[in-house]
Amino acid sequence: xxxxxxxxxxxxxxxILISGFMVVTLKNIFHCALFLILCLFSxxxxxxxxxxxxxxxxxxxxxxxxxxxxxxxxxxxxxxxASKKISQTNENRVVGFFVCLVFALSAIILISxxxxxxxxxxxxxxxxxxxxxxxxxxxxxxxxxxxxxxLLAAMIGAIVLARKERP
Length: 167
Prior knowledge:
With about 170 residues, this protein is mainly α. It has helices spanning about 5-25, 30-50, 55-75, 80, 95-115, 130-140, 140-160.
């Protein structure tokens, strides 16, 4: 990575860590969803720094555009349920902290002992998205069309289920 890319990388990494921490510690679920969106946008920013434009676009479209917005709609539509008083206890917070600590230390040890990391100074070719699109439309045209029909059927089903009955 270039020295000029180090500063944006560390800023995006800090935003990911802070927003991820806020997701799991805030009590307001709507604010948690907003911090999740910020975290997912920051991950897309890291993909852009790595010259993986397709992954960044997929990250924004799939995770931010679909999953996080779906969560916000679910929160807003179930606001009547959320207004009821539900007691929240954090009795197992210490146990959860130690379990997370064990997993984090295990991951650090596993990653530090791995010798198969490959480093390269070569950037990805800029036409990798063109190659992906060409492959989808030539070699994988049948699975691509099947998935598109499946998504169309899911959208029509969602519209039918969401439509209100007319008297």
